[in-house]
Each structure stands twice: as C-alpha cells, then as structure tokens.
Amino acid sequence: MKRGLFVLAHGSKAKEADDILKEIIAMLEERNKEEFPLLGFGSLQISKPSFHEGIDELVNKGAEEIVIVPMFLFQGNHIKYDIPEELDQVKEKYPAIKFIMAKHIGADRRVAEIVKERGKEALALTF
After folding, report:
1. Enzyme catalytic residues
2. Which of 112, 93, 23, 114 is nearest to 51 (CA)?
3. What is the CATH number that goes with domain 3-125?
4. Which of 77, 86, 105, 118 has the greatest number of C-beta atoms within 10 Å?
5. What is the pLDDT of residue 127?
6. Running DSSP on this structure, what letter comes out for residue 107?
7. Rounded distance, CA 15 to CA 98, Å?
8. CB count, 10 Å around CB of 11?
9. Keyword annotations for this protein (predicted)?
10. d(Cα 96, Cα 94) in Å, to the nearest integer?
11. Coil, helix or strand at residue 10
12. Edge-to-edge strand order for the sheet containing 38-43?
C-alpha cells in the first residue's frame, strides 16, 4: 500500500510562513522514505496549495493511505471543527483512500526543548 504523509498548516498572508513550511517538508523528505514514501502538504487557509489541492496531489502520486498531521499547537476551532469538515469532504471525494488523522502538535517535550534552545541562542547573542 502506498502511504503518504500530509502536513497540514494553518496558512498565512506572510510569504515567510510558506517558506518555513517548505523547509520543513524538505527536512521530512530527507528522513522519511521508509514509513512515508509519499509526502504532501497544504494549508487550511490563504496559502497554496490548499488542503484539497495538496490531497489531490498526493492521490495523483498514487497514495492509497494518507496520514494527515495538523501542524497546530492548540486544539482550537480548526482542530475541533474545520479540519474534520474538510476531511469529510476528501473522504467523500476519494472513498477508496484510507485517511488517518494524527494528533495536532500540542504540548510536547520536543517543543519545550526547542523553546529552551531558542532561549539559549538568544542569551548567546547578548554577550
């Protein structure tokens, strides 16, 4: 079964947000071939590709199973309502594809480590 990993971002008017998402995708491409031979991404709002466009692209690459990872820290309305509604639409469009929704980023020790490292980097710049 061809499996795809789909990174779902919020989206933004800021070009930097799109650039950062593409950098993260490039990092995943370097490490990701065994578990997820196919990789895709999209945004819920504003940015391109949209959620639906990104899913279409993964399906066109031959994905039969798609794991969607929402790159959101908080379980707000997008996680609770908007993403499930969008997911229902793609499931209806692609009934033969297995879609699996992963947990959002949330509170995670790895995020705490990044925050600590950013603090250390800031201290190093002040001396």
Report:
1. 10
2. 93
3. 3.40.50.1400
4. 86
5. 63
6. S
7. 32
8. 19
9. Lyase, Metal-binding
10. 6
11. coil
12. 38-43, 3-9, 65-70, 98-101
Amino acid identity at 40: G
CA 43 – CA 18 distance, rounded (Å) = 9
pLDDT tens digits in sequence order for the chain, 127 residues long: 899 999 999 999 999 999 999 999 999 988 867 889 999 999 999 999 999 999 999 999 999 999 999 999 999 999 999 999 999 999 999 999 999 999 999 999 999 999 999 999 999 987 6
The one-letter code for the residue type at 106 is G
DSSP conformational letter for 78: I
Q: Following DSSP, what letter does each residue of 23-53 receive, concatenated?
A: HHHHHHHHH-TTT-SEEEEEESSSSSSBHHH
What is the per-residue pLDDT for 95?
A: 98
Question: Which residue do the tokens 């929704």 mark?
Answer: 101
